[in-house]
Amino acid sequence: MKRAMPFGDQVDISSDESSSSDADDDDHPLLNDNVEIDQPAKEMTSEEMSPEAAMIRRAEMYQEYMKLIPVPIHRGSVIPFTSWTGLGKSIKQLYGQPLHYLTNIRLKQWDQMRTGHESEDTPLDTLFHPCKAEASIWLVEEVHRLTTSHCQLAKLWLADPIHHAFIDPIFPKI
After folding, report:
1. What is the C-alpha R_g of the chain?
2. Can you give the pTM of this predicted structure?
3. 128-147: string of b/e by CB count within 10 Å (b at 16+)?
4. Nearest residue to 102 (alpha-carbon basis) of 174, 172, 167
5. Is 85 helix (H, G, I), strand (E, B) or coil?
6. Where exactly are the structural domains of the chain?
7. Could you list the pLDDT tens digit for every one of the 174 residues in the chain?
8. Does residue 56 contact residue 151 with C-beta atoms inside 8 Å?
9. What CATH code would you report for 51-166?
């Protein structure tokens, strides 16, 4: 069997297996003599990708960006808050940083978990010390920034038609 080489040279390759006909080689793309080895792979544009592939690519870029943003080390202010999402909003404004999509979802879930509880109308800063609550959010944020799989993130985004509502439009200098 003969293969096309980058410089037009051909080399005979023999094997101990029974030989097959050239017609069989034409049926398999890896065995076809017309394959050009030295051609660069064509990069697909987002228009050419399937919606799933495009979402995976966006999730990968988002996750890589979020990994680059350092979680603040020095936190010296006490932020009063009545809800978890309210505290998250104040943190974003104070530090000029976005919170991860999954952190925003988690804060919303924490607020929803209070529905029907006897402390539902009690401001959270009377139940939790504001510094502990803020530290909890930053801990969750760090886990999401450093360990979230972009594939899992894309899967969640595909299932949530309004996922953009939980992606912060803040772009800090890195």
Report:
1. 27
2. 0.70
3. eebeebbeebbebbeebbee
4. 167
5. helix
6. 1-39, 51-166
7. 444 444 444 444 444 444 444 444 444 444 444 444 444 544 555 566 788 999 999 999 999 999 999 999 887 688 999 999 999 999 999 999 999 999 999 999 999 999 999 989 999 999 999 999 999 999 999 999 999 999 999 999 999 999 999 999 888 877
8. yes
9. 1.20.120.690
